[in-house]
What does this fold into?
Amino acid sequence: MTIASPARLLAGLTIFITAAGLACCSGENVQQLPSLGVIAGETTVSGISSGAYMAGQFQMAHASTVMGAAIIAGGPYGCAQSIFSGMVIGPFATMLNAAKAVSGCMKNEMAAWGVPDARLLAGNAKDRAERGEIDPVADAVTDRVYVFSGTNDTIVQPPIVASAVEFYRRLGVPDANIRFVSDIPAGHGFVTDAAGEACGASREPFIVDCDYDQAKDLLTHLLGPLAEPSPAPAGTFIAFDQSQFSGGSGKSGIAEEGVVYIPDVCRTGGCRVHVAYHGCAQNRETVGDAFIKDAGFQRYADTNRLVVLFPQTVASLDNPQACWDWWGFTGPDFLTRDAPQIRAVAAMLERLAQKPR
It folds into this structure.
């Protein structure tokens, strides 16, 4: 296999080249993440692109508390880990993973070498579970899984996304628990029925209007039948301090501020949580609140007792487009419970699960 040049790695992992600057957050009231007494064992997660990979990683790491995951324009868990990365240390291992991430887990340029190999990746997941690095696979097998690939997505190509479906099947998730949507002419973006760019677009803010309510479809599959949405948000979007959950380390890639949407009915406990991971260059620093507000989760949160957590990443020299870590730039434990970003979001969920004060 030929290792991609550094320039190509940067171009590939950047995914979304954007000229946007700071688009949000200036002067807003940043609060502490509140304790809400949420139901910790009924968490669901979703994500797009790098967020899709992170949703899968969080699901596997904390399968005992996650009951469902939605993978939008992303591939199978562990896809980017090179078989050679364990032979080297530090940035060399990261570069090997990055090369595979671009060529084999976004583009479909390694298909001749059998990449992605869903059978191998499912076996790797079972091995990690046996070593205690992630939760038991038996906890993930009962999950509900939604997978989406737009037919016009050239950034994470459809065969890569299809391999995520095969990964879950190899893991043991029954077909009845898997919903695979692959017939909508969407580009690379979160799909809505009314907001965003043209359906086939792949540009910021990576929200595309295909007359399809993706938030409704994925939440229905993960949670069951939903009550009718509210016509306008009745709850509250709160910007909160994330630094206390990331340990204050810039290496984690976690931004100083995140956002949570809290319906009024959830202030006294008994609600579930949905974690929505943005994609690369889709964080608040880049596109403001476009993903947070236009994806439409809040419309269903109000009427279905659902708190929605929008954790945020920050750009850095080794991660210029603020992607979630799915190729190991935060360290070799990026696929496990010990991954800095996974630890941070788990700590946020622990806070939300504490009894209201």
